[in-house]
Structures are given as structure tokens and as C-alpha cells.
Amino acid sequence: xxxxxxxxxxxxxxxxxxxxxxxxxxxxxxxxxxxxxxxxxxxxxxxxxxxxxxxxxxxxxxxxxxxxxxxxxxxxxxxxxxxxxxxxxxxxxxxxxxxxxxxxxxxxxxxxxxxxxxxxxxxxxxxxxxxxxxxxxxxxxxxxxxxxxxxxxxxxxxxxx
Length: 161
Fold this sequence. Notes:
Layout: E1 2-10, H1 14-27, E2 34-40, H2 52-79, E3 87-92, H3 110-121, E4 123-129, H4 135-141, H5 144-151, E5 156-160
Parallel strand pairs: 1-2, 1-4, 2-3, 4-5
Helix pairs in contact: 1-2, 3-5
């Protein structure tokens, strides 16, 4: 694992933005680091929409919001002194109603996909924001952050709240 390669998993939440900002503060103008921003798509359930068209519109709106967030996250890192060339961005699509060709996360949980990217990319650090789930929700359903903490190997995990 290369500890100068940092994987920042984002979801457009406030905690995710804080994780990006923290990474920028910690790395800043230090040369030699590579930062990879990763979003793993998880669309809203189809069942809560009256028809396919409404669901696809919601998915496309969500995708655009995430792409805007990823652009803002890159800007946040650059404002902290990280070079443009040192930042890469990845939108991992579930493929269910995506509007563009990207890496597919279909068949993987969000946490498993993040860990797969970490292992395949040789990232020495994984950065995540802690989402505001209750203890009951975490017990029943787990959380992406908890799964990453428990299953990440050969790396440092930064959890930013």
C-alpha cells in the first residue's frame, strides 16, 4: 500500500464535505500525494415513485447533484493547495439508470465497493465522513463507515465527523 495515495469516499453530505476539507488541510501543499475522490452510486428505491419516469428523473437529478459536489470537492482540495493533477475523481455508477459511462458498482454494497477500489488502487489511506445514523439504525442496518473500519486491511482509515 502506498501511503501517499489517499482514497476519499464521498456522498455529498456535510460530513463528507468536512472529510474532503480535512484531507486538504492535512495534505495541503505537501508534494507527492495523490487524492482520489470516489462516489459510489446508490439510487433511491424505485418503489417510492409513482412511475419509471419519475424515478429516472430523480436518479438523474441526484447524479447531477453528486457530479456538482465532486467538482466542488476538487475545488476545496485545490484551495487548500493540492495540485489539480494530484486529484482524480470517480463516479461509480450502479448502472440502473445512469446517464454516462463510468465504473460500475452494481452487485456491491457501497462499503464493499469502496474497499475494492482501495485494494485494487493500493491506497494507503481511506477517508470517510461519519454519517448521522442513530445507534438503532447502525445496529439494524450497519453503516458504510463502520463496515470500512472493520474490514479495511493494510491502510489507515480517517473518520471525519
